[in-house]
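> forwarded from #structure-qc
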């Protein structure tokens, strides 16, 4: 089984705690990521995810322009050691109800792994196990 370190995104993006939710969302969109680590000085103090923005900011009916990252970020940061298996990451995400884990090496955050990274790993794994004779096809989706 492959390790989390092999599928993680290195050099995760960061944002300050006082940044507006709107600015943070724009940064996430530009970087094409679903999470930003929140950095206060040199210390990572939380994580902001697209889910945090929807559930804690947008749905609150408060003016988004006045809301900061610190108001909706998740703390503490859920972590997994990079040497752990992808299966361990999947289990941890399910148990904790999160879609992003900070990846650590000797206690230091070195990357981030998302549920999408895990799904892509298993997709490639499944495709590598299908014989060329058997083939592989995408599921058919009917439209009404």
């Amino acid at each position: 089984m492959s390790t989390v370190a092999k599928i993680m995104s290195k050099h995760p993006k960061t944002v300050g705690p006082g940044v507006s939710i709107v600015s943070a969302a724009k940064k996430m969109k530009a970087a094409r990521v679903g999470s930003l680590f929140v950095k206060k000085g040199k210390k990572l103090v939380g994580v902001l995810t697209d889910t945090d923005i929807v559930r804690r900011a947008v749905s609150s009916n408060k003016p988004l322009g006045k809301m900061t990252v610190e108001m909706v970020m998740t703390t503490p940061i859920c972590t997994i050691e990079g040497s752990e298996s992808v299966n361990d990451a999947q289990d941890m995400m399910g148990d904790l109800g999160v879609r992003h884990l900070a990846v650590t090496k000797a206690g230091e955050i070195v990357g981030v792994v998302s549920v999408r990274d895990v799904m892509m790993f298993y997709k490639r794994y499944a495709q590598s196990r299908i014989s060329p004779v058997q083939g592989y096809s995408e599921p058919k989706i009917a439209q009404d």
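QC bot note: The two ends are 40 Å apart (CA to CA). Strands lie at 9-10, 14-15, 35-40, 43-49, 79-81, 100-105, 108-114.
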